[in-house]
């Protein structure tokens, strides 16, 4: 199985290989997906970046005394979800991020949660999602109350956190580790690995573009049986960059941070 795109199975005990978890970060442009990802990987806040870059990073974590090989896809969907299969069929869990100072970003996070719910329904497989209200440090400019965030999360049955990529690292780390725990619970329910990309192309009668039902332009909903190999993300779109968190977190070895291409890290 490909180590980049495959869905590995959950580890079964302390002696087994590290648990492998794929995590996708979704949300409107500017919500803070990249800032949160980089904060988690490096403990640092970035303020400049290339918004069009989409990369998948890898980090060795320890969650509840269990080694975890965590891959984080920092998605860049531009204005609307596109080619969603690249993360829908890849991730074991999702972080859906909105910026609490933007009502539009909150609306878009709702669309993402709806997309995930529909995907779960159509594939009969659910992957946990966590809803994150980012930019807590800007709370004085908030357009979305904490109660609204909690209500939306409650509607979709997911965990909810308010966070800031600018504030303490531990809280951001806690949220990512919660996503790992959620993914682990789900993986343990399904001990067999699940297929990822199947080459057969066959339109199903019930297949309908999400555009029609949910206003998500350019994102068609395919069941696993209709996803074709050519929909696999190009290497450039989902490049695996290994960042050992212990190295990335060490100021003495700061050059290692250049692995996070496109970011200026201070
Ligand atoms: N004050 C504050 N600014 C933040 C926070 N997180 C991100 N930002 C800023 O918000 C802007 C957008 O952040 P990004 O992390 O690039 O947002 P994104 O969701 O990755 O956006 P795209 O890359 O365009 O998809 C940047 O200027 C960040 O510096 C935060 O927690 N607090």
TrEMBL record:
Pfam families: Ras. PROSITE patterns: RAB, RAS. It catalyses: GTP + H2O = GDP + phosphate + H(+). Its EC number is 3.6.5.2. InterPro entries: P-loop_NTPase (IPR027417), Ras-related_GTPase (IPR051065), Small_GTP-bd (IPR005225), Small_GTPase (IPR001806). Keywords: GTP-binding, Hydrolase, Nucleotide-binding. The keyword Hydrolase applies. GO terms for molecular function: G protein activity; GTP binding. CDD domains: RERG_RasL11_like. It is an enzyme of class 3 (hydrolase). Belongs to the small GTPase superfamily. Ras family. This is Ras-like protein family member 12.
